[in-house]
Q: What sequence folds into this?
């Protein structure tokens, strides 16, 4: 088993991609060993490169979603630039694009056209709302799709809906595009044929809304926004501790409540008190339940409270900020941090969460500079020195 190659070694992906959804999908493919050729605009490249400069001068979104890729910068509006991409696709296994609706078709880079020309090709269209229907041409940024999918309606406090703090719609679409490619590769291995893969941000995030959606359409009422609390479980919240921290706990059944009452709250009678003995009763008396838990934990330091809860067998966690996540003892103990190269030097990055014991470690390649691999890829596409010079002179390649 030792020394197995990366599972996608030998797979070539060409991506005309931008922002998060498609780049996040293709980064997963690169981490698993695929060669990913990222086609970028000559005037600044993927616009996510300009979102911020937080990662030692580079954009944090771009660093996160684009390691391990080769960057070629060409002008797709020029027939010569488009011809380069078509040459690259002809030798590829997978093509991924998330251009604005209709743009790929105008360029002849839509899945139907490409799969007709290349029967073994897997062509992925990632869109905001899908290829048909009244929303097909709407702009689809992450926050807008979070709203359309109902995520914002169940996130936040009773008085204030909020969007998720991460680009949930982009990530959902990216992960379904990634898994769609894997499924299509398996199918191609048995049938010899590729084919289209379609993923929309709205449909991906709507799937992730399964619990509140089913609660609403089958139960009749949408779950209330409860901040860090749970709409139908109590106690289930974050509680301040004596040293300024916050401890989250979740009591999943009445046996756990009895242990909490006896071993943490120091009030075993609450375990059988009819006003608190069942989850339904605790939810009805949520304010009093939270007050009892808050009073007990508020007298303890964070470490002391967590130790007491763990000893009692109560699910609990520390409310961490991102600096604390960076220093998380579990990630350190499991050696999940690595460094990846970039135009500004090495950058800290997490190993991808898919671990394949017995094989080689995830291939976490460098974050590319814009057009870093243009010349090599043009040569691989069969261009001569004179042709390459002409493309650069005319602003078709950078």
A:
């Amino acid at each position: 088993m030792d020394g197995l190659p990366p599972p996608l070694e030998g797979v070539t992906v060409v991506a005309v991609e931008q922002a998060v959804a498609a780049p996040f999908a293709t980064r997963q493919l690169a981490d698993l060993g695929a060669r990913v050729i990222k086609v970028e605009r000559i005037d600044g490249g993927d616009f996510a490169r300009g979102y911020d400069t937080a990662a030692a001068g580079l954009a944090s979104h771009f660093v996160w979603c684009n390691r391990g890729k080769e960057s070629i910068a060409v002008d797709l509006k020029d027939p010569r630039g488009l011809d380069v991409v078509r040459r690259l696709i002809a030798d590829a296994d997978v093509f991924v694009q998330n251009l604005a609706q209709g743009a790929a078709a105008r360029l002849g880079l839509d899945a139907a056209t490409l799969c007709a020309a290349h029967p073994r090709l897997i062509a992925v269209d990632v869109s905001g709302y899908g290829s048909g229907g009244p929303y097909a041409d709407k702009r689809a940024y992450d926050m807008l799709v979070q709203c359309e999918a109902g995520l914002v309606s169940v996130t936040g406090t009773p008085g204030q809906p909020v969007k998720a703090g991460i680009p949930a719609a982009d990530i959902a679409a990216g992960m379904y595009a990634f898994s769609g490619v894997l499924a299509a590769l398996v199918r191609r291995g048995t049938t010899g044929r590729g084919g289209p893969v379609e993923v929309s941000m709205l449909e991906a995030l709507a799937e992730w809304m399964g619990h509140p959606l089913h609660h609403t359409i089958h139960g009749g009422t949408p779950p209330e926004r409860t901040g860090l609390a749970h709409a139908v479980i109590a106690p289930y919240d974050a509680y301040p501790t004596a040293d300024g921290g916050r401890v989250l706990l979740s009591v999943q059944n009445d046996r756990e409540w009895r242990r909490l009452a006896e071993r943490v709250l120091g009030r075993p009678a609450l375990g059988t008190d009819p006003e608190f003995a069942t989850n339904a009763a605790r939810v009805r008396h949520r304010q009093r339940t939270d007050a009892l838990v808050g009073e007990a934990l508020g007298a303890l330091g964070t470490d002391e409270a967590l130790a007491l809860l763990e000893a009692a067998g109560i699910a609990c966690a520390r409310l961490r900020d991102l600096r604390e996540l960076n220093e998380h003892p579990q990630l350190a103990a499991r050696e999940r941090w690595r460094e990846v190269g970039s135009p500004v030097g090495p950058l800290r990055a997490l190993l991808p969460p898919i671990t394949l014991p017995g094989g080689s470690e995830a291939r976490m390649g460098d974050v590319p500079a814009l057009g870093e691999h243009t010349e090599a890829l043009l040569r691989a596409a069969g261009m001569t020195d004179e042709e390459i010079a002409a493309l650069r002179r005319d602003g078709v390649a950078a």
About this structure: The chain has 17 helices and 13 strands. The mean pLDDT is 95.
